[in-house]
Prior knowledge:
Blueprint: E1 3-4, H1 6-15, H2 20-27, E2 28-30, E3 36-38, E4 46-47, E5 50-51, H3 59-63, H4 76-81, H5 87-99
Antiparallel strand pairs: 1-3, 2-3, 4-5
Helix pairs in contact: 1-2
Bound molecules: iron/sulfur cluster.
Amino acid sequence: xxxxxxxxxxxxxxxxxxxxxxxxxxxxxxxxxxxxxxxxxxxxxxxxxxxxxxxxxxxxxxxxxxxxxxxxxxxxxxxxxxxxxxxxxxxxxxxxxxxxxxx
Length: 103
Ligand code: SF4
């Protein structure tokens, strides 16, 4: 799930030279928690494994996979969901597995 806020949507809509109404209709929907989310996975802006709006990507994209943020254990499930496609997550999990001592 790719979340964004109002200012990020405004900024990207401006970059794409679209009205917010057109941008929202084309790319967004409301998530179950009321947050704005991209209405397509993979994201509309992913092409050839690259972000086509890199300078305008959202905070969540900039911080992904957020291994540096507090409360990692609360995001463990969603982190594992990307294990097979995100090299950073794969490498971190594999290193954690090597550090686990089973007695
Ligand atoms: S980094 Fe770019 S392509 Fe990836 S989810 Fe974010 S906006 Fe979409």
